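Sample entry follows:

_____
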Amino acid sequence: MAEGDKLKVEKAKFESEWESIDEKREELKKDAERIAMERVAVAKFLKDERDSLRMEKDAMRNQYNTT
């Protein structure tokens, strides 16, 4: 095989690998964005639950103190 043909094969292989790396990078970026949104949703849910429990506790305390 001629040197020029070897270089063309290597170049094609390199470009294919580079394209694969770019695709993986894009997938990771999308996963990171999805995880960030899920983290915000979980944090909001936990805050809402904590607030709800605090209100419930205060209501029970008020009910106990008024009786």
In short: The two ends are 96 Å apart (CA to CA).
